[in-house]
Automatic annotation (TrEMBL):
Keyword annotations: Oxidoreductase
Protein name per its UniProtKB record: SDR family NAD(P)-dependent oxidoreductase
Residue stretches in coiled coil: none
InterPro entries: NAD(P)-bd_dom_sf (IPR036291), SDR_fam (IPR002347)
Family, as annotated: Belongs to the short-chain dehydrogenases/reductases (SDR) family.
Transmembrane residue ranges: none
Organism encoding this protein: Paractinoplanes aksuensis
Length: 322
């Protein structure tokens, strides 16, 4: 049964930024891991949490490329598509004896034009976003328990509304489509959140999935990207980024805000297994709504939160990782 999937009235809006979410919140003494915490949204999450006092570890597949500049955070190696790398990262973390107050599962592979597989034969966006984060989260459970109240925030997308789990062909042996592969991985992020919360809420580990909005960054954008961005209504005729938070088109600080909200906001205490957007719990909307340049549907729907599908995915994932 789906419950609590309705806005709280958080007081924030779609335009609220990371600074707004963290106003008055002191994260001193909190340990946080952000996967891909040097990328577009990840870097803003890292910056914001570190500025609020958290001790942040960025998990990056190539630490040399994870330039954080003036941001005060550690960087550790983690390749989510390599099970040995995930285990090594978790082993190193647990060996320090540190608790883990928030795990931000942010990294993803976005829209590969051609089918790519990991070394085990799994489609790469599913491998990165879902399998890697599933393995990482489970390996870090001792540290999450040690926090005495922890959050697992997994970054999903409005694409989770559309993304079907291809139960009989998860790796796209036929009919590969970049949008369908990304959608499957982002649906998996929400289903994982639902089942994770069901399993571990009693131990003080609560899970949320969050949609940041659509964020392409300030630009200038690569000329090859402009036709697609124009078609999606994301840039104007001069190639400048269009910002319209109510329509989901956000700055980095606005997009990262919902991720920070899910990771640390006390407004979510006592809740879990929910899908967030615009700095609140998202409304549930089961209407069929087409994706157009003027309308990017991103509310929750029953399919992404289905507890039976969530259990099924957990079991299938355990088998894939065995
Ligand atoms: N931007 C949007 O409009 C939007 C909309 C909805 C949802 N999201 C979600 O928001 C999250 C962040 O997206 P973004 O736009 O900030 O993308 P991004 O800049 O491409 O960041 C993705 C990050 O994931 C890391 N990564 C990729 N494969 C990895 C692997 N195998 N192991 C470890 N790290 C890996 C990348 O590291 P490298 O630097 O090594 O490549 C990068 O730091 C994603 O979950 C995405 O699905 C974004």
């Amino acid at each position: 049964m789906i419950k609590d999937q309705h806005p709280l009235g958080s007081g924030f809006t779609a335009a609220s930024t990371t600074t707004d979410i963290l106003d008055g919140i002191d994260l001193t003494g909190r340990e946080v891991i952000v996967t891909g915490g040097h990328g577009r949204l990840g870097r803003e999450v890292t910056r914001a949490l570190a500025t609020a006092g958290a001790s942040v570890t960025v998990a990056a597949r190539d630490p040399h490329r994870a330039a954080l500049g003036e941001i005060d955070a550690e960087v550790e190696q983690l390749d989510l598509t390599d099970p040995a790398s995930v285990d090594a990262f978790a082993t190193r973390w647990l060996a320090t004896g540190r608790p883990l107050h928030a795990l931000v599962n942010n990294a993803a592979m976005l829209f590969s034009p051609e089918l790519r597989l990991d070394t085990r034969g799994n489609e790469l966006s599913f491998s990165t976003s879902h399998l890697g984060h599933f393995q990482l989260t489970r390996a870090l459970l001792p540290a999450l328990r040690k926090a005495g109240g922890a959050r697992v925030l997994t970054v999903t997308s409005g694409a989770a509304r559309f993304g079907e789990i291809r139960w009989n062909d998860l790796a796209f042996s036929t009919g590969y489509d970049p949008g369908a592969a990304y959608g499957q991985s982002k649906r998996a992020n929400v289903l994982f959140t639902v089942e994770l919360d069901r399993r571990y809420a009693d131990e003080g580990i609560r899970a949320f999935a969050a949609h940041p909005g659509v964020i392409i960054g300030p630009g200038p954008h690569h000329p090859s990207q402009l036709p697609s961005y124009r078609a999606q209504g994301l840039v104007d005729e001069n190639g400048a980024t269009i910002i319209n938070p109510e329509a989901g088109k956000k700055t980095l600080a606005q997009g990262a805000a919902t991720l920070v909200f899910g990771a640390v906001s006390p407004l979510l205490d006592g809740l879990g297994g929910l899908y967030l957007k615009d700095n609140d719990v998202a409304p549930l909307d089961d209407a069929v709504r087409p994706l157009t340049a003027d309308n990017i549907p991103s509310d929750a729907n029953s399919a992404m939160l289905d507890p039976a599908q969530a259990r099924r995915l957990w079991t299938v994932t355990e088998q894939l990782l065995a």
